Known about the structure:
The protein is of the alpha/beta class.
Amino acid sequence: xxxxxxxxxxxxxxxxxxxxxxxxxxxxxxxxxxxxxxxxxxxxxxxxxxxxxxxxxxxxxxxxxxxxxxxxxxxxxxxxxxxxxxxxxxxxxxxxxxxxxxxxxxxxxxxxxxxxxxxxxxxxxxxxxxxxxxxxxxxxxxxxxxxxxxxxxxxxxxxxxxxxxxxxxxxxxxxxxxxxxxxxxxxxxxxxxxxxxxxxxxxxxxxxxxxxxxxxxxxxxxxxxxxxxxxxxxxxxxxxxxxxxxxxxxxxxxxx
Length: 256
């Protein structure tokens, strides 16, 4: 059996001019969008918060859509609008996520559960399926899902429901990789440890920063750019033989 030819050799990462669809305009999504634009990508950025979208620096290569990922019926319209603006989507990263902290498991309500699972798991599954089918029909592409160390450890600092949903994201990644990789759609995931975004600090208890820092060998909280760069690697041609992989980006925490 002969091997397929490698992508363009040398330092070409294969991202310039590619159309990237990103969900979540705060924290990781914003930084990922900025770095992708710097690499010459065209980016469609989706968020339910118009204000968050407007905080991203305007660019001719940036298209923003105000939409709620939980509206599953609206996923097709999001994709159609993105395609109308920049042509077929070639890369996809859903970063939108929420945490509703309950430090006592007995305080978790059904509403707490539904809110976090709908955003962090259900919407990711269905939008990823929509995009994967689109990629399959347009010659392939790459998807990177955003899981969490909480999905491996069970969650800390009141994030058990969040961790449950993020564990399911890893299951989605593995299942989608098996189905879509033969169609030239690579599906991977990053598994961040702690990341310095507003979501990390909402509802936290006093003194938690030192505790969080002690969880990893590097002794500090990660920066969004330190997660975004590995994502861009997995989206790039440099990762052309990687699919079905979860990449820990955690400062030395999980040691897997």
